[in-house]
Amino acid sequence: MSSPPPLPDPAVCEQARLSRDARFDGVFFTAVRTTGIYCRPVCPAPPPRAENVTYYANAAAAQADGFRPCLRCRPELAPGDGHWHRGDDVVARALALIDRGVLDDAPLAALAAQLHLGERQLRRLFVERLGAAPIGVRGTRRLLFAKQLLTETALPVTEVALAAGFASLRRFNTAFREAYRMAPRDLRRQPGVAAASDGLVLRLGYRPPYNFAAMLDFLRSRALPGIERIDEARYTRVVGDAAAAGWLRVSHWPATAAGPAHALRLELHGIAPTRLQDTVRRVRRMFDLDAEPTAIAAHLAQDPRLAPLLRARPGLRLPSGWDGFEIAVRSVIGQQVSVAAARTLTARLSQRFGHPLPEMLAAQGFAHLFPTPEALVDGDFDGLGLIGSRIATIRAIAAALLDGRVDFDPARTLDETVARWTALPGIGPWTAQYIALRALGHPDAFPAQDLVLQKAVPTDGSRLDARALQARAQAWRPWRGYAVFHLWRDAALSAPPAATRSRSPR
């Protein structure tokens, strides 16, 4: 996969910042040499003179050159860099590993080894493409997350430091002072913006357009009773494990008199500080908040079959899943049955094997967690309505995850992921690609064996076979996953309910 340019054309950047174009939020940052501050292109402050501006591809590059984040537009709210959205590019995979905390307890050499690169080569790639070394990128992300927690929540500074991945309060204070020229406590202003004492509220930005209604529609039809609740405007779910469970809710951030916020509202209840960063990372992936919809649409719209779908439903995103194992089990149960039937069978399995929740969470409408691999590897499936081959495959997945034969490692390419999963009994290319699409949110995953896709691409009532569909979709790379969901959504809205069978989108 070829690497996209790290920055738009300077003339495009200049026009975007002067017009405060939200489509470029997070695509680049504006640093002002006279103030030493860097901003998002949507910053409401009066625009500086062009001769005083330097453009950077990301916040880490700006901070590496000594600029501080703007307190008004808050760069920590910008969506992730759309150029390095999840995919097979080595920098994209490295960033995904950094987000998972690989560098928290291991040296840069360990990250390079996971990517089959030399340490020097990895550092060179980051500097060339992002303008900052991997350690600098990691440090900037941690500090920006801490800055958001300090600004939006009432968490004690000690817990903010833990949430941002710092081993001690002293190290956090030192890093914060060096980067921002102020102590963390000095950032705390206007206590009224903090969340209530029974939970936290965070703003998660995205680049418009965003079809949040379509996202909720997809998740609603697959919601598991006792684990998830989805109404017309909100997604609610229990998260955590048997030792510590909490819950979260995702909704649209309300618009103000100044216009739409271009953000989702994340409410968190009972989530330990050390799990906050991972929770936010999962939600951002699940709701595909770091996509660059304008660039994706411009690429896919070159195909005459996709162009009208993109016009009809702008901002359609990849609805990923909360947990990889959950998606893998659901993909097996959903093979060749309707979406409703798959949901019923999965709910039965969850009720039998999922860890029951305490009364405090039961009062919120949650009953149990999704089962763990340990619970399913030798579980008794009698009476659940699953056929023997499905049971064997679920047990094989659980065993393979426990012994490391398969995983949800973002360091792997799509081909590597598919090869590992299809080595398991009962997992064919369709299921492996679906797991990559929804468990990893891989933007180029493409289940060419899907009968709905094979019928949806032609407009004359014919059907493409998997080979022909693969050939047609080559021009859609590296965004084939978005084409999949546009075609699935079009088919679902066009077909009667009885047609949602046989390898339909699970």
User: Widest sheet: strand order?
Assistant: 5-9-8-7-6
Which structural class matches the secondary elements? alpha+beta
Largest sheet: 5 strands, antiparallel
- CATH fold naming of the domain at 194-290: TATA-Binding Protein
Instruction: Please state the CA-atom Rg, rounded to the nearest Å.
Output: 23 Å
Percent strand: 5-15%
Helix content: 40-55%
Q: How many DSSP E strands?
A: 9
**CATH homologous superfamily heading of the domain at 194-290:** DNA-3-methyladenine glycosylase AlkA, N-terminal domain
Parts with pLDDT < 50 across at least 5 consecutive residues? 190-197, 499-505
CATH structural architecture of the domain at 194-290: 2-Layer Sandwich
Distance between the termini: 28 Å
Task: Please give the CATH class of the domain at 194-290.
Answer: Alpha Beta
Average of per-residue pLDDT values: 92
Helices, by number, come to: 23
Shape descriptor = globular
